[in-house]
Amino acid sequence: MNKSLLFLLVHVSLLAISTARPNPRNLASFGPWIDQNVYDPKVQYMASYAISEYDKNTGSHLELIEVVSASTFYVSFYPRGQNIWHLVLKAKDCSQPSTPPSIYQSQVYENFNPPQFGGNYLSFGFLMN
């Protein structure tokens, strides 16, 4: 048998065996981007969190006008998990009242950790226009 074909068969077999094991410590999963309802209270909370973190980090004073769109992507590495929130926000910079509202994009990381890893928390990624 050809060496490259044998090599390929061994790797495919190992991959099939490793993914078929029921041990959750070996599982990692990635979900698709899922659109969220922009009026959902959790989406509104994530948008407010993104704006407040941006204000803390930059000294700006943005005021959230509306959430234009929101989507999440779930990533799991046993025993931890994380939702990555991608938010498109319409906000006004109150430190410059004459400027019209702008569209900002943000990522917020919602971490799901067991207590021994610090528990659940949010972390701010970025906000840009």
Keywords:
protease inhibitor; globular; Cystatin_dom; six-stranded antiparallel β-sheet; disordered N terminus; 2 helices; 129 residues; single chain; Cystatin_sf; cysteine-type endopeptidase inhibitor activity; Cysteine proteinase inhibitor; alpha+beta
What does this structure look like?
With 129 residues, the protein is an alpha+beta fold. The chain contains 2 helices and 6 strands; from the N terminus they run H-E-E-H-E-E-E-E. Strands 1, 2, 3, 4, 5 and 6 form a 6-stranded antiparallel beta sheet that branches. The relative contact order is 0.16. Residues 3-26 have low confidence and may be disordered. Keywords: Protease inhibitor, Signal, Thiol protease inhibitor. Residues 1-20 form the signal peptide. This is Cysteine proteinase inhibitor. It comes from Rhynchospora pubera.
Summarize the structure.
By secondary structure, the chain is α+β, with helices and mostly antiparallel strands.
Order of helices and strands: HEEHEEEE
Largest sheet: 6 strands, antiparallel
Supply the helix-strand structural class. Answer: alpha+beta
Low-confidence stretches: 3-26
Number of helical runs?
A: 2
Helix content: 25-40%
Mean pLDDT, all residues: 77
Query: How many individual β-strands?
Result: 6
- Strand share of the residues? 35-45%
What integer value in Å does the Rg equal?
21 Å
User: Looking at the structure, what is the overall shape?
Assistant: globular
Beginning-to-end CA distance, first to last residue: 58 Å
Pfam family, one: SQAPI
Keywords: Protease inhibitor, Signal, Thiol protease inhibitor
InterPro entries: Cystatin_dom, Cystatin_sf
Family: Belongs to the cystatin family. Phytocystatin subfamily.
